[in-house]
């Protein structure tokens, strides 16, 4: 039963990642296909130290994926569901984040 649950969870995460939305960071970098932009990258825990409220995700825990071609931009997910994007550019503090626009 545990294996079945794990397979279902993996399938659900893959489904959600496949249907991730798009976002624009710092008004200049647009990611039309977030799922493609994070393909091949590994996730890590996103602590949300800024206390962002993601309209698509009511709460965490959150994971961040580095968006391709940028060390500053991240896609944020919770439970395999796309929440939004953040960037280091324009952050209020060093190593902090600012929200990107969901398209």
Automatic annotation (TrEMBL):
GO terms for molecular function: hydrolase activity; RNA binding; RNA endonuclease activity. Residues 1-20 form the signal peptide. Keywords: Hydrolase, Nuclease, Signal. It comes from the Eukaryota. InterPro entries: N1-like, Ribonuclease/ribotoxin. This is Uncharacterized protein. The lineage of its organism: Eukaryota, Fungi, Dikarya, Basidiomycota, Agaricomycotina.
């Amino acid at each position: 039963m545990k294996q079945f649950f794990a397979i279902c969870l993996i399938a659900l995460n893959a489904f959600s990642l496949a249907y991730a939305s798009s976002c624009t960071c710092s008004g200049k970098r647009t990611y039309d296909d977030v799922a493609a932009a994070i393909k091949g990258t590994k996730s890590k825990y996103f602590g949300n130290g800024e206390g962002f409220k993601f309209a698509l995700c009511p709460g965490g825990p959150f994971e961040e994926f580095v968006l391709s071609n940028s060390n500053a931009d991240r896609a944020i997910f919770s439970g395999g569901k796309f929440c939004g994007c953040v960037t280091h550019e324009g952050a209020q503090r060093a190593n902090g984040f600012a929200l990107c626009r969901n398209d």
